Amino acid sequence: AAHGTGGAGLSNANEAMSGFDNPALIGQTGDSISMGFSVFMPDRQVDMTALGATAPVVSDNNVFAIPQVAFTSKINEGMSWGIMVNALGGMNTDYRSGPNGAGGPQTVDLSGMIVAPTMSFALGKDATIGASLLIGYTNFRVRNLFGGTTGFNGTTNEGSTVGYGVKLGADFKVADGISVGAVLQPKVAMDEFAFFKSFLTSMGFTGDAGLTLPNIAGVGAKFKVGNNMNVVTDLMYYQWTSVDVFEFFGWDDQFVIKAGLEYQASDKLTLRAGFNYGESPIQGGNRTGNGGGDAAFANFSFPAISEQHVTVGLGYKMDKNMTVNAYYLHSPEACQTATTSSVGMGGPPAGTEICMTQNAFGLGLNYAAK
Q1: Which member of 52, 114, 138, 256 has the lowest number of beta carbons within 10 Å of its beta carbon?
Q2: Contact 136/212 with Cβ under 8 angstroms?
């Protein structure tokens, strides 16, 4: 449901999965279960002709199915518990002809999941707090990334790690029709990949090589307008520099604004729309940690550069217990161009361009016992 409002959901308990955005919200979802999936379709392109490639190259892998499931239940009037499971996917590029002149296909594939056992506690009738234990699993595979015929300079590498973290949340009713939510999620402690650590060390890296979620904080609000409309908005902060790997590859910290509308068109139908904006953490001209690369070149295999997207969605109440939620998302093309030399990373003097366009849609069911 939150995807339909541009991702805004820190103070909007629409379904059991809302507890993944803010653990405090499961105090409002009651005894419910939600299941859903998204189909994520990113188009990625890299133009590295300055390094010897004959033409821009498009990533071959561009359709990903990402499932999720959640369950929540009331223990008593002041306590609730639940568990959320959310897959992480779409973090993959598969360039069938090596964009930097390598002798074969170049692949990076990062995927995983988070399991989040959650509790919430009411502090009176207008305030709720919550906490989730985050149990993370990540699988990372690289092939032919910087030359040779496979892997890192001639090897195929793949590994899996696990990690642990917490997410803390709160939700407050501050006036009739107005609520405010907040979350704080310290960096998830994730094991390192030995092969990735070895590769980065050869480039002068001296930090922790764990690929993990950074420090995250956010505040959000919901405003009721008239009898049929809600306005929802979130402001999120992602401290990418709290993760040594992202800082090494030239990522900036990031603020993301999310805003959306929900309109109750009838007793059964809710219509949603939203907008999401955050300046790309990867900028051409950013220097990588070894001082030898432009971030737009260094991140060609992981071009997380999209800056905005728009969404539409709906909820349809099939009966008193079952609701269908759906959304569609479009993120227009965003590009970053290397403006400084990357010779120290084996790259071109300047001019490498990475681009991304995204589309996604999702469908979910939420059953709430009445």
Answers
A1: 52
A2: yes
pLDDT at 67: 95
Q: What is the rounded CA–CA span in Å between residue 214 and residue 281? A: 13
Question: Rg (Cα) of the chain, in Å, rounded?
Answer: 22
H or E segment to which residue 237 belongs: strand 229-239
Specify whether the CB–CB gap between 219 and 180 falls below 8 A: yes
**Beta bridge partner(s), residue 317:** 323
For residues 235 and 197, give the distance between their C-alpha atoms in angstroms, rounded to a whole number: 33
The CA distance from 76 to 293, in Å, is: 56
HSE at residue 155, side-chain half, CA atoms within 13 A, is 7
Neighbouring residues of 108: CB distance < 8 A, sequence distance ≥ 6: 92, 93, 141, 142, 145, 301, 302
Interatomic CA distance for residues 252 and 250, integer angstroms:
7
CA dist 79 and 102 (Å) reads: 57
Phi/psi for 19 (5° steps) reads: -65, -15
- Model pTM? 0.93
Cβ-in-10-Å burial (0-12, 13-18, 19+) of 85 comes to: middle
| DSSP-assigned beta bridge partners for residue 83 | 71, 117
* Residues of the chain scoring pLDDT < 70: 50-53, 98-104, 146-154, 290-292, 342-349
- pLDDT of 35-63, one tens digit each? 999 999 999 998 877 666 677 888 888 89
Cα–Cα nearest to 245, from 302, 283, 186? 302
CA distances from 207 to 71, 150, 210, 282 (A): 38, 26, 9, 20
CA 266 → CA 69, 261, 315, 369, distances in Å?
Answer: 27, 15, 11, 21
Largest separation between any pair of C-alpha atoms in the chain: 66
